[in-house]
Design a protein that fits this description.
By secondary structure, the chain is mainly alpha-helical. Helix content is about 85%, strand content about 0%.
Length: about 90
Amino acid sequence: MIGWCAIIADRQKKPAPSLSEWKAFAVFSGMAFQLVANMLVFGWIGHVLAEKWHAPYLTAIGVVVGLGTGLYGMAYLVKRLMGDKS
């Protein structure tokens, strides 16, 4: 009886994620972090400048610049992952 239960328990175990799945998770989470961090940092810089110069549109410009730099960084990482060295 104990041997039979062990066989059933072994069949119910899920296989551990492979290294490539963890690598993909690390890459995509890194890209998401890079995008969000760029938007926050440039948005904060824009906010500081907006308060200093009394121009509220600078916050939006900072966020858009952060979005652009984040997307550029994501494109660079994707190109590197696809094997393009340039």
